Amino acid sequence: MPDNERQFESDIESFLVSAQGGWLKATDAGYRAGFQYDSTGVLTENYALDVETLCAFVKHTQPVQWALFEKRCKSDPKKKFYKAFQNAVDMEGLVNVLRHGFKHRGQEFKVIYFKPETRLNQLALTHYKENICQCIRQWHYSPRNQNSVDMMLAVNGIPLVAIELKDQLTGQTIDNAIAQWMTDRDPREEAFQFNRRILTYFAVDLYRAAMSTRLAGTKTYFLPFNQGSNGPGVDGGAGNPQNPTGDYVTAYLWKTVLQKDSFLDILQKFISYQKEIKKVKLPGGKVRVDTTEKIIFPRYHQLDVVRKLVRHTKEHGPGHNYLIQHSAGSGKSNSIAWTAYRLASLHDDENRAIYNSVIIVTDRKVLDNQLQGTIDSFDHTLGSVVLIDEKKSSKDLLNAVNDGKRIIVTTLQKFPVIYDLVNDTSGKAFAVIVDEAHSSQTGKSAMLLRTALADTSDALTEYAELEGKAEEELDASNDKLLRELVAAGRHSNLSFYAFTATPKDKTLEIFGEEWADGSYHPFHIYSMRQAIEEGFIMDVLANYTTYKTCYKVAKNIPDNPEVPASKAMKLIRRYAELHPYNIEQKSAIIVETFREVTSKAIGGKGKMMVVTASRLAAVRYFREVQAYIRQQGYDGLQVMIAFSGSVTDPDIPNAEYTESNMNKDIDGNRVTESQTKDVFHEQGDVLIVAEKYQTGFDEPLLHTMIIDKKLRDVKAVQTISRLNRICPGKVDTYVLDFVNNAEDIRKAFQAFYTETSLESEINIDLIYTTQKKLREYKLYTDADIDMVTSIYLDPENNKNSVTLQNKITNALLPVASRYNDELDQQQRYDFRRDVRSFVKWYNYITQIVRMFDKALHKEYIFCNYLTRLLPSDDAEVWDLGNKVTLEYYKLEETFAGSISLEKDMAGQYETPTMKKGAAKQENKSQLDEVIEKFNEHYAGEITEGDRIIAEILMNKMSQDDILRKSAQQDGEQIFVNSVFSKAYDKTAMDAYKESSQAFSALFSDSKKYAALKSALAEIMYREFCQV
Q1: Are 339 and 312 within 8 A, CB to CB?
Q2: Which residues pair with 152 in a beta bridge?
Q3: By the 8 A CB rule, do 258 and 12 touch?
Q4: Comparing 368 with 298, which gets the higher pLDDT?
Q5: Please, which contacts does 977-980 make with residues 24 or more away whose CB atoms are closer than 8 Å?
């Protein structure tokens, strides 16, 4: 173990300049020669590169171009070549010039040669070996001072990597190195200007590494560049593990990342320059143009996963599935872009392309744009990415697949239209990258994607052996049943690369790796725990507050009718949730939380999201929040709403609400649905949502979330994780939850905090249990199945979808009649549930295995049509009307603090089974009983003494003429918050003076005092208004 930084530096250099490391040992003499002075000794220019080395490389590798260049120069060709190079860098940036070279007076020059994808181009391979790669210690980068950087790596005289080293044994750490980059290295120096010379800055000590791609003084942002506490790609936290070889803990940096071939590979295929130009509308109609530039260097887990995927694919070829469990904040978009580019250009040892096309299945427009820009920056010869977005048709997708476009980006929903029109895929291989892999990959659309792309020759051979026939006797192209049978399961020409932060059980079985014990695991992991510990995402559970909403509902009619119990319970709960008083109380909390917490976060830029249970709830919250803001006189608080479609409020007739007709910018202009995100980012404070923006919404300024909706499992994680994006000045987040308890949220997040796995594979044969159960209803026979499938499989019928539909629905008429005539309501519900389960289960298992069961597949075809034909029974209409009233209401804080997750507890699904739906039979209960049960769940802890106090106060205030007049003239808001509030305080104090013992409990409990005030205000307002 060295005891000084110089020894640490020397050991790193020893590896880098070895035959294994690939770099040449050099000094900085050539760079200092670039410090240009005039005759009086005044500095005139700093080349910030080694011109001699650069020109030597060009002269050696491009002798014809150099000779012509020299011939055209009347003096000092090296200085003029520097000028030509620098002009190109000033115009295009260094990344572009390195990757594509530059033109000067019609001549094209390369300043670096990259390794060719195949060995067929020997000249390119020779040029690659002729790159001059130098490792320089103590690089003096500036003529203005004597400062030096510990180590610099240059290619052909161009400085590209700079490293500051620290040694804990001398009392310094990586933090000192980072501080040195921030405070002692001037970003205005020619060598440190963005995208002009150095592309990556490293800070390294004995245990940790960090990197940045842009110096900006104290605003420089360094990212951790560590493997993870248990090593790369496995479950763990921040940091690095012990080195199993006994070498330095951080040796991976110079041995696997900065090793010459590895670094040149990163330079060619990973580093990218991204520029975003955004027009921002300002108050008064002015427009500001914001330009953002950044250089992307892969984080360690990104580099690791792409290289491992490429290595495994190259070794094993197509036909394998890969599940990548990478947390939010892991940079999945870039990881997908890099993976797609590498796979599209990947060749085997025989120099043959492994894949004909790489198809990315996504629903995100942001990924589409980012993907195209990233890949275009790598290699102009590969051809542009083909985006099959909502503006293009399935025919465009068909043409892209048939034409063998290298990278195709599309949605899963377009494949059912083209699955049987794709040209013969024999001998072709496809890589399918799934962005945000989830349960949709187990459905029919996913099955048809496989049908479209699968090379079924192997499956056909397997089927022929089972049937005892010669393969030549079978013609899948003209036999639709056979074609569908052999398309099931996995295929040797299809590989799936599935990225997700929250894998479900079925996702794990379809895409995961099966271990020796039968369990299924991701191929590569970058866990939520590691992302939080490394500071790439916020810990959204660190500041979590939960409330319990306590209601008491009373019957408001003299009779006691029988009602459908579960439906009545839901309606009563909805009545309570949408009750004006509930909305009012929570709206006040929302606004005050924004003012006290959100508005002070992120340097005053913090934003809030309110998650509601329904579109109507969102609309009512929107109105009430704005009313409270006006009532309190709070200026400049911008509230917006997001939901799909339109909604009406039964309490406000003749009004239809949409997102676009409710949202306005600060100038009062309408905001279209497509503008909501941008306007909220620039101007908004509070965004009230209903089933929208709960996934895929990337707003780093989002600090606070108010939840008034039941959230479970993946949905809870996806929704609350909208807060996890980091940005400068964001040091925490805050969640206030009116509905969910802390333990349920903890369980939801724990499943995805570390590795998520599946206990064992499903029992495929359970499908036969459901098949048998369907037959027990005696609604259809084999003859019915044969009739429908013969229509479905007839080539003539498939020429016209309308004809096919007409004939099949006609054939199913007797079955539908028996369903309606022979089954009671409960049996009809059970049958619908079972037939849907059968179809869904069959779609799932055919992603995993080929069953070659003709009879089962025919029954699937039959049931797939039947399930869409059978209508649900008309539900009994029961209107709550004015049958109940809200008698008591209280909000009670139940938890405040951090919800802690276990580092050593992995999430594991049990083996998937066919789920049974709940019974449909609706029990009848008297309304009194339903209300009593509701109050058992939602009422607060109300003692008999509380009831007596409430009755005394109510009797006293019911005689108050001022209260009565206010209720009838002023409206509920003024009555509750002003007139009644003062009357309540006075009446309660008078009552306390009369009977201090009886009322002492009320004054000793502020929450109870406030809750009783709120409940009485609502009740008395209603009673006064009815008089």
Answers
A1: no
A2: 136, 162
A3: no
A4: 298
A5: 977/631, 980/1013, 980/1016, 980/1017, 980/1020, 980/1021
